[in-house]
Write a structure and sequence with these properties.
The chain has about 150 residues and is mainly α. It is built from six helices and no strands. The chain starts with a helix and ends in a 5-residue tail after the last helix. The relative contact order is 0.16.
Length: about 150
Amino acid sequence: MWLDAALAYLHFSAVFVLFAFLTVEVMLARGALDANAVRTLVRVDLWYVGAAVVALATGLSRAAWGVKGWAFYAGDWVFWAKIAAFAAVAVLSIPPTLAFVRWRRRVNAEPGFVVPEDERRRMRRYLMWELHVAALIPLLAVAMARGLGR
């Protein structure tokens, strides 16, 4: 029982941190991205990816070793929809992460570099898609916890 509670706490905390850092990325990408903003984006994105890894690891651990057990989740289409939404967010996060790294390289080579407006807008669209798809995950989690997909 304590293991399940600890895993739930870690899972929820990681999800909250994930949303916090994704929101920070969206907010940073609202305006011009100079060298300082790019460096901040890279650091924030690293924390975001770390939170996603912890959320996935603790979520799968809850499914495997939690009170409900794997059998509860394995046959639940809502569980698999939640996993699919998480995977979609992960795929959507690849272009922004690669752009942030590319921009950091440019900043390191050219300290006065400012991200071109069209690139900034394109990456912000990806971030907004990430945020909107990620918003489905808690909804699916609530349905899943109540056995609505079984």
